[in-house]
């Protein structure tokens, strides 16, 4: 009897030890798979590329001991993709709180001279041509052809390099021009983004521009870990969420004004230097870490860092931004049947039907306010 009890006890102890060992191994492995470098020197897209969870899963799957954690990680990844690229966000039930028009929004498009033909012409032929008054193009080189298409081309004097400093320089000018404009909302997009301005207005009308609003979509699945320089010799770790510039984001005027000591004039560049991260991360740092305002995540913003095939064709107009480009070494664009073939229109932006314009009574003259016919339930 006693010997039986002793054996059971021994077996239980061995079992418990093995379980502990297994849990420790899995925990360690999961950490290794998703850990980001504490400090990243270059672009946020590189930050994304380095610890790709998918790549990590592939690497892990060949090693026997890592299979279990890889499996768990894969499940998390799949769920995240569904959440991110899925259609309507939960914003839905929120009623409009402010009646805003297209000219209350300042849309800043960041570009560089080498992309004027290959990227800007496409945007000028599609969504910008319908929203010229509220769209401002921030670039780094003179271009008659672009200037003939719109008056709102801003030459930033920033370098044309794809360096952290050059990108922050452009963001600094975008911020200052927005403040000067007196508009209610600042929205930033890249030159590979499509903006559904009607849907954007509908979304922003759900918030008050005098409140602290920062809205967009993160490209990372956890807050970025950075170090902030607080003096010549002192650094301290900071963690914060940021909305990726490649999906576009918006900031209310109320919040933008509070950002001024860290963002206006030359301050933005200094702030970016303090954390040594790119422009969109610096925006997140000022808002979340310095001002303590939380990013509002919204699934209607899309960058090419997510699988754009997952946006249903019937929901295209209900998305705020779209994109095209590369994702995991493959061409990435929305699926959209239309008048143009994929060869003629690889981004699919030319194939998106023009949004319906509101009908006014005959003889109506007056400010054109955009009436929204997007289904409220779709947000
Ligand atoms: N860009 C820039 N200067 C450069 C290269 C890129 O201002 O030298 C801008 C580009 O016009 C775009 C954004 O930075 O608006 C992101 O560039 P891209 O889409 O080429 O790179 P991604 O980071 O999305 O891979
Ligand atoms: Mn891009």
UniProtKB/TrEMBL annotation:
Cellular location(s): Golgi apparatus membrane
Domain (Fringe-like glycosyltransferase) ranges: 99-348
Cofactor(s) named in the record: Mn(2+)
Keyword vocabulary terms for this entry: Developmental protein, Disulfide bond, Glycoprotein, Glycosyltransferase, Golgi apparatus, Manganese, Membrane, Metal-binding, Signal, Signal-anchor, Transferase, Transmembrane, Transmembrane helix
The protein's name: Beta-1,3-N-acetylglucosaminyltransferase
GO MF, one example: O-fucosylpeptide 3-beta-N-acetylglucosaminyltransferase activity
BP-aspect Gene Ontology terms: pattern specification process
Catalysis performed (reactions): 3-O-(alpha-L-fucosyl)-L-seryl-[EGF-like domain protein] + UDP-N-acetyl-alpha-D-glucosamine = 3-O-(N-acetyl-beta-D-glucosaminyl-(1->3)-alpha-L-fucosyl)-L-seryl-[EGF-like domain protein] + UDP + H(+); 3-O-(alpha-L-fucosyl)-L-threonyl-[EGF-like domain protein] + UDP-N-acetyl-alpha-D-glucosamine = 3-O-(N-acetyl-beta-D-glucosaminyl-(1->3)-alpha-L-fucosyl)-L-threonyl-[EGF-like domain protein] + UDP + H(+)
Positions bound to Mn(2+): 192, 304
Membrane topology: Single-pass type II membrane protein
InterPro entries reported for this sequence: Fringe, Fringe-like_glycosylTrfase
Segment forming the signal sequence: 1-28
Family recorded in the similarity comment: Belongs to the glycosyltransferase 31 family.
UniProt-annotated catalytic positions: 280
A single cellular component GO annotation: Golgi membrane
E.C. code: 2.4.1.222
Superkingdom of origin: Eukaryota
Residues annotated as binding substrate: 119, 191
Pfam name, any one: Fringe
């Amino acid at each position: 009897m006693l010997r039986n009890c002793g054996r059971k006890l021994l077996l239980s102890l061995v079992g418990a030890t093995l379980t502990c060992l297994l849990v420790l191994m899995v925990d360690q492995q999961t950490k290794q798979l998703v850990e980001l470098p504490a400090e990243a020197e270059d672009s946020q897209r590189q930050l994304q590329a380095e610890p790709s969870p998918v790549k990590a899963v592939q690497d892990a799957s060949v090693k026997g001991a890592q299979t279990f954690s890889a499996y768990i990680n894969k499940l998390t990844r799949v769920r995240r993709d569904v959440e991110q690229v899925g259609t309507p966000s939960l914003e839905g039930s929120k009623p409009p709180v402010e009646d805003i028009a297209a000219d209350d929004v300042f849309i800043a498009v960041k570009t560089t001279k080498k992309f004027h033909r290959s990227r800007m012409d496409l945007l000028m032929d599609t969504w910008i041509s319908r929203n010229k008054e509220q769209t401002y193009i921030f670039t780094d080189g003179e271009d008659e052809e672009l200037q003939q298409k719109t008056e709102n081309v801003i030459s930033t004097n920033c370098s044309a390099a794809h360096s952290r400093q050059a990108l922050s320089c452009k963001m600094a000018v975008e911020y200052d021009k927005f403040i000067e404009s007196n508009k209610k909302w600042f929205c930033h997009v890249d030159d590979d983004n499509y903006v559904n301005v009607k849907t954007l207005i509908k979304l922003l009308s759900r918030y008050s521009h005098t409140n602290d609003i920062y809205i967009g979509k993160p490209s990372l699945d956890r807050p970025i870990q950075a170090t902030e320089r607080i003096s010549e010799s002192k650094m301290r770790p900071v963690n914060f969420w940021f909305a990726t510039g490649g999906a576009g984001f918006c900031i209310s005027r109320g919040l933008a004004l509070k950002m001024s000591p860290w963002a206006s004039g030359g301050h933005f560049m200094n702030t970016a230097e303090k954390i040594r991260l790119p422009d969109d991360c610096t925006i997140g740092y000022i808002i979340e870490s310095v001002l303590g305002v939380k990013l509002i995540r919204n699934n209607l913003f899309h960058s090419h860092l997510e699988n754009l095939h997952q946006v249903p064709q019937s929901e295209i107009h209900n998305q705020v931004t779209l994109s095209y480009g590369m994702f995991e070494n493959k061409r990435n664009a929305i699926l959209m049947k239309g008048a143009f073939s994929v060869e003629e229109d690889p981004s699919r932006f030319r194939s998106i039907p023009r949004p319906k314009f509101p009908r006014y009574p005959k003889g109506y003259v007056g400010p054109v306010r955009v009436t929204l016919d997007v289904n409220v339930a779709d947000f």
